[in-house]
Amino acid sequence: MSGKKRFQKPGSLQPNIDDILEWSKLPEDAFEPASTQEKADFIKDRKSVSYWADAWRRLRRNKVAMVALAIIIALVIFGFVGPSVVPYTYKQQVRGSESLHPWHYTLEDQEKINAYMEEHNQTENLTPDEAVEKAKAEAEAEGKELSRIEESKIRAKASVSQQKESDEHVTEAEAAKALGIKHKAFGYSAQELQKKADGEKVFPHVFGTDDQGRDIMVRVMVGTRISIIVGVCAAIIVLIIGALYGSISGYCGGVVDTVMQRIVEIIYSIPEMLIILLLSATLKPALEQFQNSGNGPLQNLVTILGPNLISMFIAFGLLYWVTMSRIIRGQILQLKQQEYVTAARALGAKGGRIIGKHLLPNCIGQIITTTFLQIPSAIFLESFLSFIGVGVSAPLTSLGSMCSEALSGLSTYPYRLFIPAGILSLMILALNLFGDGLRDALDPKLKK
Amino acid sequence: MEQEKKNDKLLEVRDLKVSFFTPAGEVKAVNGISYDVNYDEVMGVVGESGSGKSVEAYSIIGLLQNPGKVVGGSITFEGQDMLSKTKNEMIDFRGKEVAMIFQNPMTCLNPVYTIGNQLVEALKAHDKEISKEDAEKHAMKMLEEVGINNVEKRMKQYPHELSGGMRQRVMIAMGLICHPKLLIADEPTTALDVTIQAQILELMKKLQKQNHMGIIFITHNLGVVAEICDKVSVMYAGKMVEQGPVDDIFYNPGHPYTKGLLRSMPRVDAESYERLIPIEGSPVDMLNPPEGCPFAPRCEHAMKICLQKMPPYVELGDNHRAACWLRVQDCLEEAKEEHVLPEQNTEKTEVDNHE
Amino acid sequence: MAKYTARRVLMAIVTVLVVACVTFFLMNAIPGNPWLSEKTPTQATIDALNAKYGLDQPLIVQLGKYLGNLLHGDFGTSIKMQKNRAVLDIIKEMFPVSAKVGVFALLWAVAVGLPLGCLAAYKRGTWVDSFLRVVCTIGISMPGFVVATLLLHTLCGGIPGFKVFPALFDGTPKSYVLPCLALGFYPMCYLSRQTRTAMLDSINQEYIKTARAKGLKNGKIIFKHALRNALIPVITYLGPQIAFTLCGGMVVEQVFSIPGLGRYFIQAIQNRDYPLIMGTTIFLASFIVIMNLIVDLCYKLVDPRINLSKGGN
User: Fold this and answer.
1) Has residue B174 got a pLDDT over 70?
2) Cα–Cα separations (whole angstroms), residue C148 to A277, B178, C243, C288
3) Residue A217 in contact with residue A86, Cβ under 8 Å?
4) Closest Cα in chain A, distance from residue B259 (Å)
5) What does DSSP say about strands B68-77 and A184-185: parallel, antiparallel, or unpaired?
6) What residues contact residue B2 under an 8 Å CB cut-off, 6+ apart?
7) Confidence (pLDDT) at B233
8) How many beta-carbon pairs under 8 angstroms link A with C?
9) Which residue of C207, C231, C307 is the best one to mutate when testing the B interface, meaning the one whose CB has the most B CBs within 10 A?
10) Minimal Cβ distance to C213: which of B95, B110, B161
11) Interface residue A36 vs chain B (CB under 8 A)
12) How far is A37 from chain B (nearest CA, A)?
C-alpha cells in the first residue's frame, strides 16, 4: 500500500460525501480479489487470423477485384473450353460461308431484299452465291475451272458491292430498312440456312466469318488461349530468373552483389522492345534451319511456337526479369537482418537453404503480386508484337494478329477488329484490376 | 471578446471522447478525459502506445484526420470553444496560438525545401504583410535562440544536411516562431540520443519560462517526465487513470498502472539485485472496450468489482486523483474508522456533513 | 554532382556499346551469308564479295571496324529497301516525322496526365477520383493499336458522315491530331496514375503534418509541399515512357500510314534488310539511352538529396 508520508485522508477530500455513500452500497464481495479465470474471460479475444485467411478476407471484400476475377475465369473458360464447344476449328475454312457478318437475314427475307434491290438497281446486283454461280458458268463455258481463290475473291467483291454506298445502288442494309426487315443474330450462309430449314443442326457463326470462311469466334477463342498461355509462361520465366538472381544478389552481398547490380543497371537501360524486334528478325533464319534439321520434339515445339514467340521468350529471359530481381533483392536485404536468419546460420544451414526456407517465403506476398502483374504486361507486349507482324506465326492466331489482319477492311467489317480488340482489352483490364486487388490484400501497408 | 488572460485557464478539456470509425467498427481511442493546462505549466501525458495520448493532442489542435472524429466533450482554449470553430478559423489558430512539434524530425521536415524557406513560411502564414528580409531576420533570431550556431549558413541548408538534434531544434524553432501560448510536444525526444535529449529538454524549459507558455508534453518515458513536467496525467486505454503534481505521482502513485510503470523503470540508484518488474499482459482491444476497468486483466490486485464497473475518481491529495477501486476501498475504510457511515445493519438515517 | 553525372554518362556509353555489340553478334549469327538472297552466286563470287566487305576477317576485327564506323556516323548501307543508300541518310529523312509525332504525343500526355493525377489525389474518394481512376485503368489496359484503330474508325469516316479528321497523313496540323492523341493516350493514363499514387504518398508523409500544424492553407500544402515531392517519382517514370512512345510510334505509324522511321523499321524487318535493321536499332537505342540520361539528370535537379550522395539511391 502507499506510504503514509503525505497521505491525506481520502474521505475528507472527496468533493461529494454522497459518493462515499454510493460506494458503501456496493455488495460485500465487490472487493474480493478477482480470480485469474475471471480476468481471462474479461478480455474478448480477437480470433487470431492467419496471414492467408486475412488476405483472402480482404480480397473478398474488394468488389472490383472479385468482378475482375470472375471475368478472368470466364475468359479462361472461353479460351480453353470454348473451342471444344464450337464445331469449327480455327483453321477450318467453310466453303460458302466466307465473309459472313455476325447477323443474317432469313431465307425468305433475303429473297425479298434481293427482289427489292433488283427493282431499284439499274445494274445487276448479285448475291455472292449468284455471282459465284455466274462466274462458274462463265468459266465452264471457256473450259476452265474456277479456283478456290478466285471463288472467294468473287464472293468478297459481290458482298462488298452489295454494301457499297453509291447513288444508284441500293445496299442490302437500305433495302432491309425500306422493307422493314430486321436482321437476326449470328451469321449463317445461305447454304447453312437451307440446312437449318431442312432440319439439320448448324452451329451459328456467332461473330461471323473472315475472308476465307474461318469462324471468327473460334479464332478469337484460340487467340485468347494463346495470349493467356504466352502471358503465364512469360511471367513464370521472369519469376524464376528474377527470384534466383535477386535472392542470390541480396543474400551474398558485398562484391558479388555490387557486380550483379551493375549488370542489372545496364540491362535496365537497354530498350527491350528493340532487342525483341532485333531478335525476331535475326533468329528467324537460324530457327528455320533448326526446324528443318530434324523431327524431334524440340523441333516440333519450335515449329508450333514460331521463331517470333521464341524470340519473345528469349528476350523475356534475358531482359524482363530485372524489375522482379530488384524487388526481391530489396526484400531479402530487409529480411537478412532478422534474427532467425542468424539463428539458422548458427545452426549450420547453408545459403541456399536459408534463402529457400526462410527468406523467400517471407516475401511471398510481393512475389505473387509482381508475378501476377507480369501476365497482363506480357499479353500487352505479345499483342503489340503480333500486330506489327512479329508475333505468333500463321496458322496460329493471336488477338493481336487478328486485329492487324482486320485493319484493311476496317470500314466494311469493323467488328473483325473490334471484337478481338475488345476481348484483349477486357482481358488485360481484368488482370490489372485483379492484380491491384491482390497487391492491396497481400500487402496491407500500402494505402490506396 | 474581452478576456483577462491570467484569470482564464489556458486550456480546459472536459470529458473528451474521440472515436475512429473504421471498417471493422468504432474504435474508442479516447473515452472521456478531462484536464487543465495553465500558463507557465508543463503537463506530461504518459502512456503506452495505443493509449490515445497522441490522438487527444491532435484533437486539440484540430489535426484529427478521417476516420477519426470527436464524438463528445469540450475543449476550451482561453475561453473559446475549439470544437465549434470553422476550418479556416482553425487554420489561423494553428501555429499562432497553439503549436505542435512531432517525434521524428527527419521525416517531419520537408526534404526539398531549405530550413530558411520553411521557417519564413511559418511566419508568413500568420503575418501576411511581413517583408522577406524581416521574416528572415526573425527566423535567424529564432534559430539562435534554440541554440543553433552559424545561422546564416543553416538557413540555406536542407534538412538532410543537419544532425538529428539540430533538426529537432529547428522543429522547435518552427513551432515557437509565432510565439504560441500553448505548445504540444508529441514525444519530441524519443528519437534522439540521451545526451541530446537532455539538451533539448533544457532548451524547452528555458523557452517556456521566456514565453510563459503552457506545454503538453507527451511521452512514454518517465525519466523525461520527472525532468521537465510540473504535473502528470497517466493515460491507459483512452482514459486518464491518474492525474496529479509530478512529485505526488512519483512518490505517492495511487493507481496500480502508475506503480507498475515506476517499477519497470530502470534506475541508476537501484541495487544490483533489484529486478525490473514489467507489467504482464498487453493493452486492451479498443474496438470492444470492456465494461469494467480496462487495466483489470493486468492488475495483480484486481477485484470482482473491477471487472464489472469503471472505477470513479478518488481524490488523493492536492489536485491528485486516481480512478481505482482500491482507492475507493481505502476511502470506505477511512470513512468507517471516522464513523461517517451508518452502521451496517441499521436503517439509513440522515448523515450530517462532516466538514 | 559531378560524380553522379559522370557515373550516369559512363553507364549510358556502356549501354550503347552493349547494344551495338549484341546487334553485331546477332547479325553474324544468321546462317548463310547476305549474298544468298539474290541469285545463287558462285563460290568465287562469294569469296570476292566477302573480301570486298571485309567479311573474311576474324569476328573481333569486324566488330572493331563496325564500332569504328559507327563513331564516324557510318551505319552501313541498305541492301534491300533502298539499295546502296546510306542507312544514316534514310534515318535522317524518316526520323523527324516520327520525332514530331512522338514529341507532341508526350507533351500532351504530361500536360494532361500530371494535373489529372493531382486532381484525383486532391479529390480522393469523391466521384471525380473514381471516374478518373476508371478511365486511366482502362487506358493502360488498351494496347496502342486498339486506341489508334478506334480513333481511326470513329473519327475518320468509319461512321458514315462523321469524318472529322483526314485519314491519311499529309503533314498538315490537322492530320497530326489523331496520331498524337492515340500515341499519347497510354502515357497520359500511366502518368496520371503514377502522379495520383505519388501525391497520395506525399500527402501521407509526416512533413505534411508539420505543415498543417504550422497553420498553412490547404492549397499551399498541396501545391507547395506535396506536389514537389510527388514529382520526384513521377520523373523517374518519364524515362521508360519515352522508350515506350518511340516503340508505340511504330503501331501508330502503321495505322495512320505515317511515313516515319517506325513503320520503315518494321518493313525492314519483314524484308530482312539487315544493315538497315542494325543501323536503325542502334540509332533508336542510343536515342533512348540519351533521353534517359537527360531525365536522370533532371531528377537530380528536383531532389536536393542527391546533391552530395555518392550516386543515385
Assistant:
1) yes
2) 21, 58, 18, 23
3) yes
4) 10
5) unpaired
6) none
7) 92
8) 137
9) C207
10) B95
11) no
12) 10
Cβ under 8 Å to B: C residues 181-210: 205-207, 209-210
Q: How far are the Cα atoms of A378, B13, B58, B207 from residue B94, in angstroms, in the given order?
A: 51, 18, 11, 19
Distance from CA of A283 to the nearest CA of B (A): 49
CB pair distance less than 8 Å for A38 and B307: yes
- Chain B: list its partners (3+ Cβ pairs within 8 Å): A, C
The strand ranges marked E within A184-339 are 184-185
Question: In a mutagenesis test of the C interface, which of A387, A390, A416, A436 is the best target, namely the one with the most C β-carbons within 10 Å?
Answer: A387
Q: What is the DSSP string of A68-90?
A: HHHHHHHHHHHHHTHHHHSSS-S
Which of A270, A281, A403 is opposite residue C277, by nearest beta carbon? A281
Asked if the Cβ–Cβ distance from C213 to B61 is below 8 Å, we say yes
- Per residue in A126-155, pLDDT (tens digit) is 677 777 777 777 777 776 676 777 777 877
Q: What is the tens place of the pLDDT at every residue in A385-431?
A: 888 877 777 667 888 888 888 887 777 787 888 888 899 999 999 99
On whether the CB atoms of residues B178 and B123 are closer than 8 A, the answer is yes
Q: How far is A83 from chain C (nearest CA, A)?
A: 25
| Band of pLDDT at residue B210, cut at 50, 70 and 90 | confident
Highest-confidence range of A392-406, B278-292, C56-70, C155-169, by mean pLDDT? A392-406
pLDDT higher than threshold 80 for residue C13: yes
pLDDT tops 50 at residue B2: no
Take residue C254 and report the three cell numbers written for it.
502503321
Structure ipTM: 0.79
B305–A26 C-beta distance less than 8 A: yes
Are the beta carbons of C98 and C262 closer than 8 angstroms?
yes
Q: What is the dihedral of CA A399, A404, A408, A409, to 10 degrees?
A: 0
Grid coordinates representing C165 are 479528321
Q: Residue holding cell 532487342?
A: A275
Strand partners, B100: B184
**How many other CB atoms are there within 10 angstroms of residue A438's CB atom?**
23
